[in-house]
Design a protein that fits this description.
Elements (H helix, E strand, L loop, with lengths): L1 H21 L13 E4 L2 E2 L13 E2 L2 E4 L5 H8 L18 H14 L6 E8 L12 E5 L11 H8 L16 H4 L17 H6 L25 E7 L12 E4 L16 E3 L8 E2 L3 E3 L1
Parallel strand pairs: 7-10
Antiparallel strand pairs: 1-4, 2-3, 4-11, 5-6, 7-8, 8-9
Length: 286
């Protein structure tokens, strides 16, 4: 009888120990994902953000440390559409549709569940653009762990420094030249005066290798400048439009004026639009 009692006690202790080990710690450190930065959620702290003081809270997520490169694009898509060629240059000349397809294909390649459901056989009734001849219906696969585009709010939260924000005008500094590539500094010489396309063209302005400028408070690079970055959202006055003619782009680019590099600047582009200053970066939900 005594031996049986001792045996039962040992079994109970083993079960209790196993259960306690199975429970995740409440304050466990976030897992590490290659080339991605963990963004701790919360309310907007950057006073220059469009979302500051609007009682909006962002959930935790992961964001690419850099814009998607041409090497990363080619490894997934098998081609390179960019105008300026280089493995470590951001991919450009990609539409919003190209970006969501990349997200799904990369997810599948890495054994993740695709985040988007893409219907190419019907046209999206929420797409009001007269210039977009594609208009795929793209919906979200809730709970999927795959790659996706950031929402405008997530992009701005991350660019503005999240919970570590110092309320900079640009992503990581109040001096654009510290963190941003734009029309004045993205060519052979530093330009002055007003924005002027012939001057930009003759100066050989172009994209630059990722990570060459200073990062922001969270360790994210090129959130201001280099290429404009696609976001998930429709462009609208209420910051959360459910339909529209244009998709949001953020961050400015090598071709644009410095005002476009401000974290609060809201760019817009047809979803099927292409440009040598148009790229993106990916995020994943926690």
């Amino acid at each position: 009888m005594r031996k049986r009692l001792i045996f039962l006690l040992i079994v109970m202790m083993f079960v209790i120990s196993a259960c306690s080990q199975a429970k995740p710690e409440k304050n466990a450190a976030p897992k590490e994902i290659d080339h991605m930065v963990f963004i701790k959620g919360g309310a907007f702290k950057n006073t220059k953000s469009n979302y500051y003081g609007k009682n909006i809270t962002i959930s935790n997520f992961y964001m690419g440390k850099y814009e998607v490169t041409q090497k990363e694009w080619a490894e997934v898509m098998g081609s390179n559409p960019s105008e300026f060629i280089g493995d470590q240059l951001p991919v450009e000349m990609v539409s919003w549709y190209d970006a969501v397809e990349y997200c799904n294909k990369r997810s599948i390649q890495e054994g993740l569940e695709p985040y988007y459901n893409i219907n190419k056989n019907k046209q999206d009734p929420d797409n009001k653009s007269e210039y977009d001849n594609i208009k795929w219906i793209v919906t979200i696969n809730e709970g999927a762990n795959g790659y996706r585009l950031p929402t405008e709010a997530e992009w701005e939260y991350a660019a503005s420094g999240g919970q570590m924000s110092k309320s900079f005008t640009y992503s990581g500094s109040n001096n654009a030249d510290d963190v941003a590539w734009y029309w004045k500094n993205a060519g052979d010489e530093y330009l002055s005066g007003d924005w002027h396309w012939p001057k930009i063209e003759s100066n050989n302005n172009k994209t630059k290798s990722i990570g060459a400028k200073e990062p922001n408070e969270l360790g994210l690079y090129d959130m201001s400048g280099n290429v404009r970055e696609w976001c998930w959202n429709w462009y609208g006055e209420d910051l959360d439009s459910r339909s529209g003619s244009l998709r949001v782009v953020k961050g400015g680019g090598w071709i644009g004026d410095v005002s476009n590099n401000e974290i609060s600047f809201r760019g817009k582009f047809d979803a099927n639009g292409l440009g040598p200053d148009q790229g993106f970066r990916v995020v994943r939900s926690e």
